[in-house]
From TrEMBL:
Annotated cofactor note: Binds 1 [4Fe-4S] cluster.
Molecular-function GO terms, alphabetical: 4 iron, 4 sulfur cluster binding; class I DNA-(apurinic or apyrimidinic site) endonuclease activity; DNA binding; DNA N-glycosylase activity; metal ion binding
Organism this protein belongs to: Sphingosinicella soli
Name of encoding gene: nth
Domain (HhH-GPD): residue spans on this chain: 38-185
Protein name: Endonuclease III
Family matches, as InterPro entries: DNA_glycosylase, Endonuclease-III-like_CS2, HhH-GPD_domain, HhH_base_excis_C, HhH_motif, Nth
């Protein structure tokens, strides 16, 4: 996709949604981190349902450790891989207290050193909590980047690095949210809904659909 096309692409996304936000519910940086860890291979809606009661009382690492792994499992048992995720959340909570005074660190290396936190999760936390210009490549961003021709790549990291180079400064802060929301609600996996897509004219996908 040419630079001028990319600019038009994001101009249309801005027009459709000037201030995109994560669809995960959270109350502070810590609960955001927990929610993102829980969202791996799960829907945001499913995570929000599971954390609604949890986050009413558990909003910091100390409270999570007091709840314990068994107690956490009772809250998140409807989420896929909940046993492993519960173990990771308890372990990362302990490390936050041990290494970071209970605060969520702002650097990638420290985040990725936490159990259950990979590059994508770190990118989300850095972007949403701290305003960093990072590009979290989930399945939606990967699909949209390849299908539209915005940043084609064979791996999430390859797509991320291409997005890093391609996206102009004015759009970088919210770019991954625009792409996630586009993929989740319009540029769907089985059948993209091209007939109401705001970037249909900039998109390089050949097999565009009609309603």
């Amino acid at each position: 996709m040419k630079p001028q096309t990319i600019t038009r692409f994001f101009d249309h996304l801005v027009e459709a949604n000037p201030a995109p936000e994560t669809e995960l519910d959270y109350v502070n940086d810590y609960t955001l981190l927990v929610a993102v860890v829980l969202s791996a291979q799960a829907t945001d809606a499913g995570v929000n349902k599971a954390t609604k009661a949890l986050f009413q009382n558990v909003r910091d690492p100390a409270a999570m450790l007091a709840l314990g792994e068994a107690g956490l499992k009772q809250h998140i048992r409807t989420i896929g891989l909940f046993n492993a995720k519960a173990a990771n959340v308890i372990a990362l909570s302990a490390l936050l207290l041990e290494r970071h005074g209970g605060e969520v660190p702002r650097d990638r290396a420290s985040l990725e050193a936490l159990p259950g936190v990979g590059r994508k999760t770190a990118n989300v936390v850095l972007n949403v909590a701290f305003g960093e210009e990072t590009f979290a490549v989930d399945t939606h961003v990967f699909r949209v980047s390849n299908r539209t021709g915005l940043a084609p790549g064979k791996t999430p990291l390859a797509v991320e690095l291409k997005l890093e180079k391609a996206i102009p400064k004015p759009y970088r802060r919210h770019a991954h949210h625009w792409l996630i929301l586009l993929g989740r609600h319009t540029c769907k996996a089985r059948k993209p809904e091209c007939w109401h897509c705001p970037v249909v004219n900039e998109c390089g996908y050949n097999a565009k659909t009609t309603a």
